[in-house]
Design goal:
- The protein is α/β, with parallel strands linked by helices.
- The chain has one domain: NAD(P)-binding Rossmann-like Domain (Rossmann fold, 3-Layer(aba) Sandwich).
- Helices cover 41% and strands 17% of the residues.
- It has 11 helices and 13 strands.
- The protein has helices at 11-19, 38-48, 62-67, 69-90, 129-144, 164-174, 191-202, 220-230, 242-245, 260-264, 272-282; strands spanning 2-6, 24-28, 52-55, 93-99, 148-153, 156-157, 178-181, 185-186, 189-190, 208-211, 218-219, 237-240, 254-255.
- Helix 1 (11-19) links the parallel strand 1 and strand 2.
- The protein starts with a strand and ends in a 6-residue tail after the last helix.
- Bound molecules: NADP nicotinamide-adenine-dinucleotide phosphate.
- The site of NADP nicotinamide-adenine-dinucleotide phosphate has 25 residues, from helix 1, helix 4 and strand 4.
- NADP nicotinamide-adenine-dinucleotide phosphate binds next to helix 1, helix 4 and strand 4.
């Protein structure tokens, strides 16, 4: 199968190119194809004629998007739309990624009154420009192309690129005190496990929206502690509130994604601790 991966220079894009290595895969970085450019997108898809387009291109700088919502919309909403329209013209399937940030921050309650993960059917309500741009991208893809998979994921880390796990390892090297928020709860996910699941999803013919994250949940502070523990690093780690962290863009307090639908499709990812350990192995950073 001929596969086109856009955003192939990003952390997920790189692992997607690896995951489809036994197919005829072309990875295009931002320098090769800017998804904001409709004509370039149309030409790339018409020229390569892929059966599958996997769009890993996105502007993921949440604070940057808050400062420039128009450009966030171009990259995260119009980009997927141009790709979906190009796929519709050529008969290709599209996988594109969305985010826990399409939801508001207040956890929904299960029948027992305890907080539960967001399902694909829950109402959205993004708090900031990044989430709004990704949600607009979802709607435009649904409108333009039936043969789409919208994969909502969260708290993504891989061996290559910018992410929380690699930042924690760097901060451990720097030796200073580390303050990490403990009032945001989510579903940490590795690019390796996500890319492997996307590979299976992409040939399933089960189109629509699905939440794909590693199983389990924790706070950023717990995730930092797990990184330091598994890497055998002694770090002065303390919790901090979201208010104390004072980031420009709002962050949802509850980012847990429910994976019932993914599991029904046979796409259960391993636990986040298991994924983290394998990521640290890949980085040569695990000692226990
Ligand atoms: N990272 C997370 O925690 C997270 C959470 C939920 C959902 N997601 C979603 O998962 C997907 C993959 O994210 P990621 O973690 O792999 O992010 P990433 O490492 O930032 O990769 C995104 C890639 O897209 C490129 N890009 C940016 N604007 C582009 C444009 N206009 N045209 C083409 N390429 C462009 C970036 O290039 P430059 O680096 O040169 O800008 C980068 O290589 C995205 O859809 C993201 O929204 C990520």
């Amino acid at each position: 199968m001929r596969v086109l991966v856009t955003g192939a220079g990003g952390q997920l894009g790189r692992d997607l190119v690896d995951a489809f290595a036994d197919h005829e895969v072309t990875g295009l970085t931002r320098a090769d194809l800017d998804v904001r450019d409709e004509a370039a997108v149309t030409d790339a898809v018409a020229g390569l004629r892929p059966a599958l387009v996997v769009n890993a291109a996105a502007w993921t700088d949440v604070d940057g998007c808050e400062a420039d919502p128009d450009d966030a919309h171009r990259a995260n909403a119009l980009g997927p739309w141009w790709l979906a329209r190009a796929c519709a013209r050529t008969g290709a399937t599209l996988v594109t990624f969305s985010t826990d940030y399409v939801f508001g921050g207040t956890a929904p309650s299960g029948p027992d009154g305890a907080p539960r993960g967001w399902t694909e059917q829950d109402p959205t309500g993004p708090l900031g420009a990044y989430g709004r741009s990704k949600l607009a991208g979802e709607a435009l893809v649904r409108e333009a192309l039936d043969a789409h998979h919208i994969v909502r994921t969260a708290w993504v880390s891989g061996a290559r690129g910018r992410n929380f796990v690699r930042t924690m390892l760097r901060l451990a090297d720097e030796g200073g005190p580390v303050r990490i928020v403990d009032d945001q709860i989510g579903s940490p996910t590795t690019t390796r496990d996500l890319a492997a699941a996307v590979r299976r999803l992409a040939v399933s013919g089960r189109y629509g929206t699905v939440h794909l994250v590693n199983e389990g949940r924790c706070s950023w502070h717990e995730l930092a502690a797990a990184v330091f523990e598994a890497a055998g690093r002694t770090v002065d780690l303390a919790p901090q509130s979201t208010a104390e962290a004072a980031r420009p863009a709002p962050r949802p307090a509850w980012s847990v994604l429910d994976t019932t639908h993914a599991r029904a499709l046979g796409l259960e990812l391993p636990s986040w601790r298991d994924g983290l350990e394998r990521l640290l192995d890949e980085l040569g950073a695990r000692t226990r």
